[in-house]
Each structure stands twice: as structure tokens, then as C-alpha cells.
Amino acid sequence: MFQFIFRRLSLVIPTFIGITLLTFTLIRLIPGDPIDVMAGERGVSAERHAELSAQLGFDKPLYIQYFRYVTGVLQGDLGNSLVTKEPVMSEFLTLFPATIELATCAAIFAILIGLPAGIFAAVKRGTIVDHSVMTFSLTGYSMPIFWWALLLMLVFSVNLGWTPVSGRIDVTYWIDDVTGFMLIDTFLSDEEGAFGSAVSHLILPSIVLGTIPMAVIARMTRSSMLEVLSEDYIRTARAKGIAPWRVIVIHALRNALIPVITVIGLQVGILLSGAILTETVFAWPGIGKWLIESIGRRDYPVVQGGILIVACIIIVVNLLVDITYGIVNPRIRHSR
Amino acid sequence: MTTSIEASKDNIELTAPVPMTPLQEFWHYFSSNKGALGGLIVIALIFFMALFANFIAPHSPSDQYRDALLLPPAWLEGGNWSFVLGTDDVGRDILSRLIYGSRLSIAVGIVAVTASLVMGILLGLVAGYCKGVVDTAIMRIVDIMLAMPSLLLAIAIVAILGPSIVNAALAISIVSLPHYVRLTRAATMAEMSRDYVTSSRVIGASPLRLMFVCILPNCLAPLIVQATLGFSTAILDMAALGFLGLGAQPPTPEWGSMLANALQFVQRAWWVVTFPGLMILITVLAFNLMGDGLRDALDPKLKQ
To answer: Do residue B244 and residue A154 have CB atoms under 8 angstroms apart?
Structure first.
């Protein structure tokens, strides 16, 4: 077991080095001199240029610059934003809870709808239920989610007036920032109706962000269930006279879930990149919107740092999924 | 008497059917899948629309009709049959912009898929054929690229190179590269152990001949499927970049960038918001349906 975890961990290190190399190079691919780019339209004098160059380490050879960069990254230092002068890391940490909250709700939505739909489609294979679930999931899978967001907003916020258009909470509430998670903070606060407001702001963004993962989970659950349902032990269980629901839930589902769990883990990447689009449409103050705005402002340290952190989160989650998979399924653990 | 002989002749012919050629067999399986066939028809229509946009479109995509701002679709009150799907905020015909937009989406799809297919096949063949250090190096890079969500990586590339449709297409082809590399490598490694490869090598075929003439044609099936699905990803990513203002720049009629400032019309002009997205959805769905159909038709495991 330890050998398996160790082997898997050792594969992460080169990937991490590669990601830092990538973000390190990306920022140097910007056409023109980095200091001139940072200085913007006005430009800087030659002395100031040399001073800044020494301060930021641009006068050193590339490998020393890279070494410094990685040392900084390992200590959590991602540089400062050019616009706000705040450390990138602290900006990230204040915005990240909003994205986690949104992504978690989206994932819950996706699992709550996708999993039962997939099971149902597999059990009723070939019927109208199966066909409609598969049609819906393929449509969801093909959905341009920024448009889906606009469409839902058009129907539910503008025409029906059921949900608010954007943001995390009504401006009339002032909520103390305790955890950064609006649902928890409003729950803890004494403000009347604040929790309800936070929930209503979350509904549409969660549905939008959860649509593609839901479709993927439904498809995966269906095919995994179909495979398991054709196994001999299912026939045996049925022949013994066990109730049909019990065969499906206890005998089939438990085994069918293994690949589904992997797929759910892999949705983290989809959720984080989907968050960029969803947050932009709903003006959700998370890291996706932050990244896009930073690109617009040419705030390169933020872009560089943000991409690095998101990539690292995805690597760590994939690693955890792999290890869990290895624990659940001995065949993976002992291969190779 | 004669009829019975003829009948028995018929029987003999029936018991020995002519085997289908691979192409016929493929078409037999593909056409029995209604979704895939539907997808193919829609794709054909969109290609037709893209090719003959200047004959089909009722107006120029950039002509601004100042007396027809934010006109609703023709079947609604206040609509005008000369602007079937209505007009946008500067009086451009939405239908014409959608028709011209298909050109851009299809072109970007073709360029991005071709570029990543060619690069992916080269890298995958080399990795699978050479093994060892070369293989490890290529696969490590591919793993790093796979660790990033494709849209994020594309955004990063465009942020550095500057927003334009060419850079967006470049970013999309780089981002979809890993899938082709992995598929080609896996197929190459499976083919390498086959007898026909060994015998070609014994005869004295050069590595290049082995790679491209012997092995590659036998790895094509999964690549064709992936390329079809790659088309849908390319169109979707292109639209997302356009929406974020990082792809095609206004006033280019691109489906995604047509939605970029649609947020302000959600309240008063639903047609500006609805139709471009619907086009993206239909196109992407058609490619996904066809990709699924191709996979089923080309996968020997499913045929039995």
C-alpha cells in the first residue's frame, strides 16, 4: 500500500516542476520587455529600469531566476499584483472560498441528479426513460455554459423574477466575513433573511456550473451499471429471489460506483474552468472572475499565480482520487 | 419443376451471402444509429451554410440598419420579414451574422483539429515507436498539459499572445494535443507487437516506413473518433474565448463573441441572447452525436 502511494507521489514531483516551468515561461513569452510591460503607457527612466530589473531579478541568468521563482512558490510567495500591490496569495485566499462554495454546490447538484438518472437509465435500458436520459445528458454535455447561464437568467431572473440576477447576496445585508463561505457566514449572523438570500443567489450559478458534470456522471453511471448488471453474480442474486431494488442498490451499485467516483474526482478540473465562465456571467466574486479581470488589466503576476494555484489544486485532487481508487480497488494497486 | 429448381438456387445464394466490404460494413453500423445520422445531416447543412454564406445570407453581416435597431424576430409583433431573427443593438441582421459565423466556427474547427491531429500523431508515433527516454519525456509533458483544464490553458496562452482569432485557434490546438498523443501512442504500442510489423522489419523496412506506412493506418479508427469529438470541443472553446473577449474581436460575426455583450440585453431583447447560443449548442451536439456513432461503428468490440 505504502509502496503504491509512494510511487504515485513520486510521479507528482516532475509534474509540479513542469507546471512551474510552464508558468515561469509563459510570463516571459509576453512580447516586449517585462518591466516596460509592467510600467505601462508612461514608461520608466533608464535608471529606474535598471533598478527594477535588479530588484525583480531580471538581470540574473534564467536558471537563477527560475530557481528563485520556485523557492518563492514553495514558500507561498507568488509576487504582488501590479494593480492592487497586494500579495497574489492573499488575494487568492480571500476569493477562493466563493469559488469553493459555488463548485461544491454545483458538484452536489450534479451528483444528486446525475447518479439517480444514470442508474434509472441503466435499469430501464432501451425504454423511453433511457433514451430521454441519454438525450438530456448529451445535450448537457454539449452545452455552452455561458449561454446556458444567460438563458436561465433570462427565464428565471428576468421573466419570472424567482432568483436574483447576480452576486452572492443582496446589498442590503452586511455580513461579517468569518469563514468566507457565504452560506455559513449568513447562517451564523443574526441578520433576518440573509441565509435565504445567499441560497437564492447560489441556485442558478450552481445549476449552470453543475450541468456538464451532471451529464458526464449520468453517462458514466449508466454504462458502469450496465456492465455490472450483466455479471453472473447479479443473475445469481436475482435467481436467489432477492428483491429487485436490493439487487440494484446493494449488489450492483456498490461495484458500479468505483469508476463513477473516479469520474466525479476528475470533474474538479471541469468545475474550476467552468467557474471562469459562470462567475463572469453571474458577477460571482471568485477566482475565475479575478483571473479574467486580471488578464484584461494585464496584471501578469496574478495571471501567473492564479494559473499555478489552480493547476496545483487539480494535480492534488487527481492524486487523491488515484490513491482512493487504489485503496478501493486492489487490482489497480498491484498493477505494474 | 423448373420453379423448384429456381427456388433451390435462391436458397443456395442465400446461404452464401457476399461479405460486406469494410466501408459497407462501417456504413451499415453507422446508418443504423439514428442520432449519428442526424448529426451527420446537421453537420452537412452547417458546412453548406458556411460554404455558401454569401448566397444564403439575406444581408451583409456588418451592415448596420440604423432604422431597425433591436428589431424582434419576424413572427413577433413589430418584427420585419426582412430580418427573420431580428436585429442587434446596432441594427445588424442576426440571421446573416449567424450564417457568416458558421464560417468562422467551421474554419477554426478544421484548423485546430488538423493542427493538433498532425502534431499529436507525430509525437504519439515517435513516443510509441522509440519507447525509453523519448517516450518518458513526451508523456511527462502530455501529463502536465492534462493537469490543466483545457479552457484555463487556452486562456493563459491567449492572455500572453494577445486576443485574436488566430491565437485562439492556436491555443485550442495546443490544448487538445494531449489526447491525440496518448491515443496514437497506445495504439502504436499495441500494433508494435503484431507479427506484420515484425515481418516488415525483417524484410528491412525503415523506421519511417514502419511508422507511417505499416503502423499508422491501423491506428486511425480511434483517432477519427477523437477528431470528430475534437471538433465539438474546438467550437465550444472558441465560443467561450469569444464570449470572454479573448477570441474573435468585434465586429467579427462569431457565435461566442456575439454573446459577449449580450448580458445587457437579457432584460429587453431575448433574441440577441438566444439564437447565437442555440447555434453553438446544435453544432456541438451534432458533432458529439456523430462522434458517438463513429465510435460505435468503428469499435470492433461493440460489433459482435
So the answer is: no
For B167-179, the pLDDT digits (tens) are 889 989 998 999 8
C-beta separation of B57 from B63 below 8 A: no
Name residue, grid cell 493506418: B217
Cβ–Cβ of A143/B140 closer than 8 Å?
no
Cα angle value A284/A290/A296 (rounded, 5°): 120
Q: What is the pLDDT of residue A2?
A: 78
Dist. CA B273–CA A330, nearest whole Å: 51
* pLDDT confidence bin for B75, thresholds 50/70/90: confident
CB B140 to CB A14 under 8 A? yes
For residue A325, the 8-state DSSP code is: H
Contact A129, A230 (CB under 8 A): no
Residues in chain B with CB shorter than 8 Å from the CB of A295 are 155, 159, 246
pLDDT at B3 over 60: no
Q: Which helix (H) or strand (E) holds A191?
A: none
pLDDT on residue B15: 63
What is the average pLDDT across B209-235? 88
Residue B22 preceded by cis peptide, ω within 30: no
Taking each helix axis from N to C terminus, what angle separates A287-296 and A88-123, rounded to the nearest 10 degrees?
130
Cβ neighbours around B263 below 10 Å, total: 20
- Amino acid A222: pLDDT: 92
Q: What are the cell numbers at A150?
A: 444567460
Amino acid at the residue B269: A
Nearest Cα of chain A lies from the Cα of B283 at a distance, in angstroms, of: 9
The candidate with the shortest Cα–Cα distance to B207, out of B125, B134, B120, B123, is B125
A175 vs B298, which has greater pLDDT? B298
- Find out whether A121 and B250 touch, Cβ atoms under 8 Å: no
Chain A residues lying within 8 Å of B263, measured CB to CB: 150, 281
Rounded (5°) CA angle B111-A294-B107: 10
Interface check B302 vs A, CB under 8 A: no
The residues, any chain, with a CB within 8 Å of residue A58's CB and separated by 6 or more, are: A34, A35, A52, A65
Q: Which of A141, A276, A314 minimises the CB distance to B151?
A: A276
Choose the closest CB to A150 out of B262, B281, B289.
B262
Q: How far is Cα of residue B182 from the mean position of the Cα atoms in its chain? A: 18
Enter the ipTM: 0.83
Q: Does residue B4 have a pLDDT over 60?
A: no
Q: Which of B170, B147, B145, B150 is nearest to B160 (CA)?
A: B170
Question: pTM for this structure?
Answer: 0.85
Q: Hey, of A295, A312, A319, A320, which one would you mutate to test binding to chain B, going by the most B CBs within 10 A of its CB?
A: A295
Task: Report CA torsion sign: B285, B290, B296, B299.
Answer: negative
Strand partners, B80: B83
**What is the rounded CA–CA span in Å between residue A18 and residue A330?**
30
DSSP reduced 3-state for B7: helix
Write the single-letter amino acid at A1: M
In this predicted structure, what is the pLDDT of residue A336?
47
The answer to whether A215 and B285 are in contact (CB under 8 A) is no
Q: Tell me: pLDDT of B10 over 60.
A: no
